């Protein structure tokens, strides 16, 4: 019996009917054999309604051979019980919670059966933001600290509830959903696909390029279209510029939280130069409008290339000097080193991805393991850190920014030597009917997964988005255990996870 | 120490000296200009193309920048009729002034609508509390940047504060999600009066791409008058700072 369908990232779509539909028991067995190998991790596990049935799709990525395994199971209408697989595979916890919340399925034995984001179309409308079932510890020795949804700074809303023993955090629970805008439902507007591009860019403004690329790539898969080399290179450059800008900005934020003002202001100013370069290229500091399906409105030109080189040479060097100083300064290291540790084993168990995984010595980077666009032709160097603490997460930003600067120069050299197609975007390109496609982009936080299903007319009938923060918020909760509560801000900044990308 | 002095020297002077006269890169997508009325067929095509229903036809052709997501696709489709300039002073206190018509050369402020106490009380210091209610965090980034080492709006006494109790007003970003509506209300109620209400970004002004989303609940805006609309996707720091300066009469 066939247990799964193999596919690759950024390639043609598959026939939705070819994804094997397994009995739940066999599905569990299949996961058992896959997750026994730490080389595999769950990209996403989700459900959607199809002809009165609930169809569950699971996508597993194998890092060593670049394959993606697709499998599914179904549940008849009226049935609402399934045995939870989370006790055995903790990395599924958030996906089972999401399915339970959306469709009213009970996963029996789920150790943490809590709401995810209170979507407008949730199965149980009696569950409301105000009565989130927080974990409690009854003791007159302990106290609780609640923070948010509105925080002291200008940031997105989310609620953090700490249970503390004195200054020490015993437990942190993260309650999100405040940002829920119903993005996935809006992605089904087939009347005008430009809407979908703009929506993708606003899944998370700090990852506008990443999400726009994941979306463009998805549509291209559904149309059997392969982007020409010049377009691929331009997209990779845009993605790496976004990575560099955020990494520098996060370095500034980390410095702010430990009171190192020089690091803060220098990095703030350097981030400005990078996002202004993106603005020079496409007119928007966040790269909105730059990435479009089947082409681009802003092909690179000699003037833009010259600007990118100039800024990266100058700001790049200045950032590296600054970062070297930051990470050799005893007063800063005293606040970063050994703080907020996530162990490699924990990271594997919760299915951590992207930066959060790489700081725990897990070389999980879609650019190298499941390459897309020009990363297929030219692989970047994967950077890892060992300790999983705030210092590792800071250092990783520095080293990745360094790699990305180097990589952009290599791409620019290649770009200069090839013929340009300068394709224009196409918002009416016909999509193949009855197909399923997966698109993964390693944006600065980690893997962004977009999935879509088309109906018999080639219209998008289901769209699913999984932000890396789905996997990684739990890492933050683990990182602050047994830490002083005053270290929460740097732990939080060091991950810089997405609220709107998670809430959708 | 020597390393730090070297870094400081490289850093140099970063602030933008003239926040009112700074010129942005030519490609920056700011105020649109209608060079010529699009034909009927073109208008129909643009209505279909526009992702956020920003094309206005009542009273002649226009673009509502309170709805516009600044994707510039209309200008790319009709380059002889529409262009986007790098004029970033696109905020106003009057919703009607957000509609750009042929012949318009600026987004106008409605001086009569400004409440006298706003200028009297906040001219020299305006402390704001920001509430993100479904914002995609690009507007939030730009509001943070408004106070950073480059734009430094603190020089005018304008600043974001940690508590609504310390604030003279609220700045909303995002389309106002249902899940955030109550927290926003509590924050507004906790801000002592007289206070200002500022909407930043197209999402906040009109709901943007999310105006028809069932996850959005915008009743808050029916209850209170808005002092300032700052369009953009996201609004540029210079747009925000100039808008606030104009409001407080500086």
Question: What's the SSE blueprint?
Answer:
The complex is a heterodimer of chains A (504) and B (250).
Chain A: E1 5-8, E2 14-15, E3 21-22, H1 24-35, E4 40-50, E5 53-62, E6 67-75, E7 81-83, H2 93-103, E8 106-108, E9 143-147, E10 159-165, E11 168-175, H3 183-186, H4 193-201, H5 208-222, H6 229-257, H7 261-282, H8 302-326, H9 330-336, H10 344-350, H11 354-358, H12 366-369, H13 390-417, E12 435-442, E13 447-454, E14 460-466, H14 468-479, H15 488-495, H16 500-503
Parallel strand pairs in A: 3-6, 7-8
Antiparallel strand pairs in A: 1-6, 2-12, 4-5, 5-6, 9-10, 10-11, 12-13, 13-14
Helix pairs in contact in A: 4-5, 5-6, 6-7, 6-13, 6-15, 7-8, 8-13, 13-15
Chain B: H1 2-11, E1 32-34, H2 40-49, E2 55-56, E3 62-64, H3 73-77, E4 82-84, E5 99-101, H4 116-122, E6 126-132, H5 138-146, E7 158-160, E8 169-173, H6 178-190, E9 196-200, H7 202-206, H8 220-223, E10 228-230, H9 237-248
Parallel strand pairs in B: 6-7, 6-8, 8-9, 9-10
Antiparallel strand pairs in B: 1-4, 2-3, 3-5
């Amino acid at each position: 019996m066939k247990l799964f369908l193999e596919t690759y990232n950024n390639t043609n779509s598959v026939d939705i009917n070819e994804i094997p539909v397994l009995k739940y028991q066999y599905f569990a067995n299949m996961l058992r054999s896959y997750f026994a190998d730490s080389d595999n991790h769950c990209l996403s596990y989700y459900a959607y309604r199809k002809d009165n049935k609930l169809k569950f799709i699971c996508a597993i990525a194998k890092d060593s051979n670049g394959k993606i395994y697709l499998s599914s199971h179904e549940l008849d209408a009226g049935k609402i019980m399934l045995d939870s697989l989370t006790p055995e595979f903790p990395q599924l916890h958030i996906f089972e919670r999401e399915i339970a919340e959306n469709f009213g399925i009970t996963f029996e034995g789920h150790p943490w059966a809590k709401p995810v984001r209170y979507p407008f179309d949730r199965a149980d409308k009696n569950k409301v933001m105000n009565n989130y079932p927080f974990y409690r510890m009854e003791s007159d020795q302990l106290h609780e600290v609640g923070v948010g949804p509105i925080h002291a700074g200008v940031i997105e809303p989310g609620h953090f509830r700490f249970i503390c023993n004195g200054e020490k955090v015993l437990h942190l629970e993260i309650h999100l959903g405040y940002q829920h805008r119903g993005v996935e439902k809006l992605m089904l507007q087939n009347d005008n696909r430009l809407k979908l591009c703009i929506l993708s860019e606003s899944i998370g403004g700090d990852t506008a390029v990443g999400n726009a690329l994941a979306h463009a790539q998805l549509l291209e898969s559904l149309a059997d279209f392969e982007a020409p080399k010049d377009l691929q290179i331009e997209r990779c450059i845009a993605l790496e510029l976004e990575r560099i800008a955020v990494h520098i900005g996060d370095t500034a934020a980390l410095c702010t939280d430990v009171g190192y003002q020089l690091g803060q202001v220098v990095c703030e100013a350097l981030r400005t130069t990078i996002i202004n370069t993106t603005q020079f290229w496409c007119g928007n500091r966040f790269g909105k409008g730059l990435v479009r399906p089947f082409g681009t409105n802003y092909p690179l030109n000699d003037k833009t290339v010259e600007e990118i080189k100039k800024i990266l040479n100058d700001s790049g060097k200045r950032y590296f000097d600054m970062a070297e100083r930051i990470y050799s300064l005893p007063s800063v290291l005293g606040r970063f080193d050994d703080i907020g540790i996530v162990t490699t084993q924990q990271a594997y168990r919760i299915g951590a991805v992207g930066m959060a995984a790489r700081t725990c010595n897990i070389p999980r980077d879609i650019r190298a393991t499941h390459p897309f666009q020009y990363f297929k032709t030219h692989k970047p160097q994967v950077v890892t850190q060992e300790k999983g603490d705030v210092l590792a997460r800071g250092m990783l930003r520095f080293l990745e920014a360094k790699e990305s600067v180097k990589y952009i120069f290599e791409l620019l050299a290649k770009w200069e030597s090839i013929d340009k197609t300068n394709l224009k975007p196409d918002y009416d390109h016909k999509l193949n009917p009855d197909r399923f496609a997966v698109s993964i982009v390693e944006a600065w936080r980690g893997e962004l997964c977009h999935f879509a299903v088309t109906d018999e007319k080639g219209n998008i009938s289901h769209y699913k988005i999984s932000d890396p923060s789905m996997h990684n918020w739990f890492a933050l909760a683990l990182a602050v255990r047994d830490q002083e509560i005053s270290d929460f801000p740097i732990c939080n900044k060091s991950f810089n996870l997405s609220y709107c990308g998670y809430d959708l | 120490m020597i390393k730090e002095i070297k870094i400081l020297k490289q850093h140099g002077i970063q602030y933008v000296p003239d926040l009112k006269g700074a010129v942005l890169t030519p490609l920056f997508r700011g105020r649109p200009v209608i060079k010529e009325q699009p034909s009927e067929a073109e208008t129909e095509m643009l209505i279909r193309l526009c992702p956020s229903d920003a094309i206005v036809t009542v009273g002649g052709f226009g673009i509502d920048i309170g709805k516009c997501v600044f994707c510039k696709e209309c200008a790319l489709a009709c380059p002889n009729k529409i262009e986007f300039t790098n004029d970033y002073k696109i905020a106003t206190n009057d919703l009607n002034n957000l509609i750009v018509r042929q012949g318009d050369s600026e987004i106008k402020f409605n001086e009569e609508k400004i409440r006298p106490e706003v200028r009297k009380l906040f001219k020299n210091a305006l402390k704001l509390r920001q509430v993100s209610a479904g914002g995609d965090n690009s507007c939030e980034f730009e509001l943070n940047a408004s106070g950073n080492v480059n734009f430094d709006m603190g020089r005018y006494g304008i600043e974001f504060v940690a508590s609504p109790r310390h604030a003279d007003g609220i700045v909303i970003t995002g389309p106002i999600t249902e899940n955030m509506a109550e927290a926003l209300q509590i924050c507004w109620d906790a801000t002592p009066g007289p206070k200002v209400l500022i909407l930043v970004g197209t999402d906040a002004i009109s709901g943007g791409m999310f105006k028809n989303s069932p996850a959005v609940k915008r009743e808050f805006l029916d209850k209170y008058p808005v002092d300032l609309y700052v369009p953009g996707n996201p609004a540029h720091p210079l747009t925000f700072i100039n808008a606030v300066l104009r409001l407080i009469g500086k």
